[in-house]
Amino acid sequence: MNADDLIALVRTYNPKTNEKMLADAFAFGEEMHDGQFRHSGEPYFTHPIAVAGILAEQQMDDATLITALLHDTIEDTKASFSDVEHRFSREIAELVDGVTKLTNLQLSSTETKQAENFRKLFMATSRDLRVTLVKLADRLHNMRTIKSMRPEKQAQKARETMDIYAPLAGRMGMQWMREELEDLAFRVLNPEGRNSIIRRFITLQKETGDVVEKITVDMEHEMDKAGIACDIYGRAKKPYSIWRKMQEKEQGFSRLSDIYGFRIITQSEAECYAALGAIHRRWFAVPGRFKDYISQPKSNGYRSLHTTVSGRDGKRVEVQIRTVEMHEVAEAGVAAHWSYREGERVENRFAVDPARWIAQLTERIDEQDDDNTFLDLVKLEMYQDQVFCFTPKGDVIKLPRGATPIDFAYAIHTRIGHACVGAKVDGLRVPLWTRLKNGQSIEVITAEGQTPQATWIDIAVTGRAKTAIRKALREEDRERFIRLGRELVRVSFDNVGKKPTDKALKTAGKALGLGNVDDLLERVGAAEITSRDVVSAIYPELAKTVGQEIEARRAVIGLDANQTHRRAQCCQPVPGERIVGITYRGQGVVVHAIDCEVLADLEDQAERWIDLHWQEGTHSATNTITLELTITNDAGVLGRICTLIGEHDANISDLVFVDRKPDYYRLLIEVDLRDVEHMHIIMTALEADTNVASIDRHRDPNRAGQVQRRS
Q1: pLDDT surpasses 70 at 109
Q2: How far is 398 from 437, CA to CA, in rounded Å?
Q3: Helix axes 129-144, 151-160, angle to 10 degrees
Q4: Does 476 participate in catalysis according to the annotation?
Q5: How far, in Å, CA of 171 to CA of 173, rounded?
Q6: Which end of the chain is more exposed for a tag (fewer CB within 10 A), N or C?
Q7: Pick the catalytic residue: 75, 163, 179, 183?
Q8: Would you say the pTM of this structure is higher than 0.85?
Q9: Active site includes 163?
């Protein structure tokens, strides 16, 4: 294609195109790329021309086409940003620069780098969507000519295309491009699988004849009878689409029925529904396979009626019914916003505003401080298929397929999500992990004081819900970790005879490279650093004395030489907690935690109270506490919990099931450990396990008469 050919193609839909600027861009690009060649041996400039041709077929505006012709000039030639700006315009220079930055993103690198680059990709997209359109056309032509690359490079580009560019094209409503990108990548990644699908198609066609033509004739006959003027197009689905269905349904090709698709293009919305009625009168509709995207359009502007029917000879076929305007948007997606016809920008009432669409897609980018969390969010947004549910007032909530009442609650408002305790679907109470279906009415049940649970992360599907839950859990954990960290630091400072003043903690935080006191205490409470590290940061000589293991019989200070001590089983105090001793005739001293409920009954017996505190240093792992856990009833969960405790140098001395449910178990585990810091590390590790719904320290006042002897 030369400059005249490209201009002639553009003039078919935009007679008012700026021919001089297009020709100038063509000449400039050809000059800059002179002497450069592709892997195939062709002159390099054949690639930008092909990219511009792809976009011209989508009836794009002049600025986008010029960007396509120049998209590699800033990166691969001596041309600079200012050169492009001076010769053409600031707008085009920024578009070319945007494509250059996208090209430089190595999106198929390691997971962390991929997450970071995804963020950059969407930030670039948010500035001008035409940058992404040029990049998609660039990738499409590269995939069409991929055979000239080295095999390892082919595989890398094909995987990148399958994982990123094809879903992105689909999310933008450019379904034709998604299907072609997937099929081109499939040809590289699994050539034998693709060839087997094609061979089976050829065999099927020999056995049954041209099924598509036969069904098309049948449909045209039905439309004529109903008096509906329309165009009907039929085709076999792409090999990759069929392969994916075979994998999802775990069926062989011979058992896969809906491998043919048909489109009926009408003149009006009313005729769409009339055509649907005619199709359903003629053939049996497959239950559960009808979708009305006209009354509930997708966020990228897509509108159509979808149904699956049992057609000729019982073969299932998919039918899409839409108007001409809807079809234009279905083919071009978000790109329809820039389409031209007869020299004027097309005014398609169904075309979505790109700025609004990309704002919806990237509205949570700035909220994400974790690149991997953002990567999860983006993949969810890109791969989702939608269901439509209703609030009790009749408002429609759009959700991805597989969404739960948790997602529904957060879609209404973050506050509703946080307070959710249950849900009713069509008037019936259901578990929060229930998968929602199209057309259901959802009522969210809330309760004051409810907070998000860690298990909700696995239940939620939408990025919005997961983001809100993680943020709430982080805030709640931070407050809890700060409180616990303050107590752990207090104990360690007491052990060396010092006070943990704010100034001391601020000094320690500075020495450890932390911003403020709360950050320091949070890290201690989260077991990321130890309280001994804090002491060492400002009192290194004193900290050396802390760490020698203390025998159980010497664990408590404040007893007379002839007195023995025992730990009370009602509160199970451990080193690091504040304690008090209570004397019992003939039984020595029983050690209680200072907040033990039993002590309230002994307030009027002050003569029995002894002021005690724990010995400084490292205690032996002989102090038993009881943990109460609720875990999911799944294979291997209990074994993993026990292993996790053992990995943290603690021993399980007893285990009792308190309650057994079909989905959950509640149990008490007695664990032998060193001190309060050791206990917190173990509880934090258990709480982080996705199969642990809740964990608490179990204390039983009724066990006041029982003791654990330590003498």
Answers
A1: no
A2: 11
A3: 140
A4: no
A5: 5
A6: C
A7: 75
A8: no
A9: no
